[in-house]
Specification:
By secondary structure, the chain is mainly β. It is built from 1 helix and 8 strands.
């Protein structure tokens, strides 16, 4: 073998030997290090509240509108209300300002019949707040709202204050959809002043409706 060829082969072997430690002696990531830690999907990890700041929901609902009382009632007959079972519908939007805490607004409409064959229509608009939590695959919320309403009865209309409180339970049927049942108590005061103050009444109603939520 010529000296030049032998020198070339010896130099190549030396370089290959020097490269072996760097190729085979690199340390593997320590167990439990960030490189090997599994990623956690907040939507699936229900050990903590999954409703994060910045998330939004849009909901529609429809169901029963149950008259509970009108105070003061008819003392002569002892009747608490002269309204029949009715129906309602609603549309709402909420934005999460903190984990589990949401604010938003709702608009609704409700129909009830009267003993005289007439109808009462109430349409409240409210600013709402609610607290949400989850036990997979179910979601829950409690909250309330305040605002105003427009009422129509036998051709006469009026405006007034409105408040509601309640909550719901839902099943997360898909990544972006939940369906469930919600129940709210409505407080609907009809206030009059002066010579008409004797007509002041306060109505209490129960909303029981099926709701579908879309998570943005």
């Amino acid at each position: 073998m010529k000296p030049t060829t032998a020198a070339a082969l010896g130099l190549a072997a030396l370089l290959a030997t020097a490269a072996l430690p760097s190729a085979f002696c690199q340390e593997a990531p320590a167990e439990g290090s960030p490189a090997e830690a599994p990623e956690i999907d907040p939507a699936q990890d229900f050990s903590v509240n999954p409703f994060l700041r910045g998330e939004q929901t849009i909901a529609i609902g429809a169901g029963l509108h149950i008259p509970l009382f009108i105070a003061p009632g008819d003392t002569a007959t002892g009747e608490r209300t002269n309204l029949s079972l009715g129906g309602d519908f609603s549309f709402s939007y909420q934005y999460f300002v903190a984990r589990g805490l949401a604010i938003g607004g709702s608009i609704a409409g409700a129909f009830n019949g009267t003993v005289g064959g007439l109808s009462l229509f109430t349409a409240p608009i409210a600013f709402t707040t609610a607290y949400w939590w989850s036990i997979a695959p179910f979601e829950f919320d409690v909250g309330g709202g305040v605002g105003g309403y427009m009422m129509r009865h036998d051709g006469d209309g009026m405006l007034g204050l409105f408040a509601k409180a309640g909550g719901g339970a839902y099943w997360r049927s898909a990544s972006a959809w939940s369906v469930g049942l919600q129940t709210y108590f409505w407080l609907v005061p009809e206030l009059h002043g002066g010579s008409y103050s004797e007509y002041t009444r306060t109505g209490g109603f129960l909303e029981v409706s099926v709701s579908a939520l879309y998570h943005l």
